[in-house]
Automatic annotation (TrEMBL):
<keyword id="KW-0444">Lipid biosynthesis</keyword>
<dbReference type="InterPro" id="IPR036291">
    <property type="entry name" value="NAD(P)-bd_dom_sf"/>
</dbReference>
<dbReference type="GO" id="GO:0004316">
    <property type="term" value="F:3-oxoacyl-[acyl-carrier-protein] reductase (NADPH) activity"/>
</dbReference>
<feature type="binding site">
    <location>
        <begin position="61"/>
        <end position="62"/>
    </location>
    <ligand>
        <name>NADP(+)</name>
    </ligand>
</feature>
<dbReference type="GO" id="GO:0006633">
    <property type="term" value="P:fatty acid biosynthetic process"/>
</dbReference>
<keyword id="KW-0275">Fatty acid biosynthesis</keyword>
<feature type="active site" description="Proton acceptor">
    <location>
        <position position="153"/>
    </location>
</feature>
<feature type="binding site">
    <location>
        <begin position="10"/>
        <end position="13"/>
    </location>
    <ligand>
        <name>NADP(+)</name>
    </ligand>
</feature>
<comment type="pathway">
    <text>Lipid metabolism; fatty acid biosynthesis.</text>
</comment>
<dbReference type="InterPro" id="IPR011284">
    <property type="entry name" value="3oxo_ACP_reduc"/>
</dbReference>
<protein>
    <recommendedName>
        <fullName>3-oxoacyl-[acyl-carrier-protein] reductase</fullName>
        <ecNumber>1.1.1.100</ecNumber>
    </recommendedName>
</protein>
<comment type="function">
    <text>Catalyzes the NADPH-dependent reduction of beta-ketoacyl-ACP substrates to beta-hydroxyacyl-ACP products, the first reductive step in the elongation cycle of fatty acid biosynthesis.</text>
</comment>
<dbReference type="InterPro" id="IPR020904">
    <property type="entry name" value="Sc_DH/Rdtase_CS"/>
</dbReference>
<dbReference type="InterPro" id="IPR002347">
    <property type="entry name" value="SDR_fam"/>
</dbReference>
<keyword id="KW-0560">Oxidoreductase</keyword>
<feature type="binding site">
    <location>
        <position position="88"/>
    </location>
    <ligand>
        <name>NADP(+)</name>
    </ligand>
</feature>
<comment type="subunit">
    <text>Homotetramer.</text>
</comment>
Length: 245
């Protein structure tokens, strides 16, 4: 491995942005993926270049296999073959089962779960060739409504974790690791829409006594992408202040 080249999906805002910046500080060239947030993604790439790093912003709908394939081709041409993949793109569309539309189910499964399959499939081949790679899945932050109306989110999260564990068994002997990070209540645009009352009640239940920040998740991602994590396989790292204890 001559160069660490990271692709972070959904990297224009929130957790993805923090991960892209921290990987760049750690010496990685970074491809900043976005679907709609072109301005923020370009700002992240510009910030990385301003600190002396190498970065490009690349547009792709990661729920579309053809666009994912083209994205990896463009990144390889501009930076080199991806050997660190962080699948961060995700959405939530809460609704009770009886009211949930098929499109709401499909959108979450496509964006949160299918995108991991599409991206990992493209990333694994060059990683196998280079005998080194890191695949990290970031499960979506809960919408924090007591679990009601989140069957699509729960299915996607379970699928992501199962996929990562299965993939880890497949590639572990080839110098590639596959792990997941499960964030708890993180201060992002997704949680900003919640009422102060609801956020306050949730924070009260967190042993750490505070909400998490995108950098908290980014720190875990940078570690999993490092040589120090070479013997960690198929694990789910909860970055949640202890809420799952």
């Amino acid at each position: 491995m001559d160069k660490r080249i990271a692709l972070v999906t959904g990297a224009g805002r929130g957790i993805g942005r923090a991960i892209a910046l921290e990987l760049a500080k750690d010496g990685c060239a970074v491809a900043v993926n976005y679907s709609r947030s072109e301005g923020p993604a370009n700002e992240v790439a510009a910030e990385i270049r301003a600190m002396g790093g190498e970065a490009v912003a690349v547009k792709a709908n990661v729920s579309d296999a053809a666009e994912v394939k083209e994205m990896f081709k463009l990144v390889a041409e501009q930076l080199g073959a991806v050997n660190i993949l962080v699948c961060n793109a995700g959405i939530t569309k809460d609704n009770l089962l009886m009211r949930m539309k098929e499109s709401e189910w499909d959108d979450v499964i496509d964006t949160d779960l299918n995108s991991l399959f599409y991206c990992a499939k493209e990333a694994v081949r060059p990683m196998l060739k280079g005998r080194w790679g890191r695949i990290i899945a970031i499960t979506s932050v809960n919408a924090l409504r007591g679990g009601a109306g989140q069957c699509n989110y729960a299915a996607a999260k379970a699928g992501m974790i199962g996929f990562i564990k299965s993939l880890a068994r497949e590639v572990a002997a080839k110098g590639i690791t596959a792990n997941a990070i499960a964030p708890g209540f993180i201060e992002t645009d997704m949680t900003a829409v919640l009422s102060d009352e609801l956020k306050g009640k949730f924070v009260e239940s967190i042993p750490a006594g505070r909400a998490g920040t995108p950098r908290d998740v980014a720190g875990a991602a940078v570690f999993l992408a490092s040589e120090n994590a070479s013997y960690i396989q198929g694990q789910v790292i909860a970055v949640d202040g202890g809420i799952t204890m």
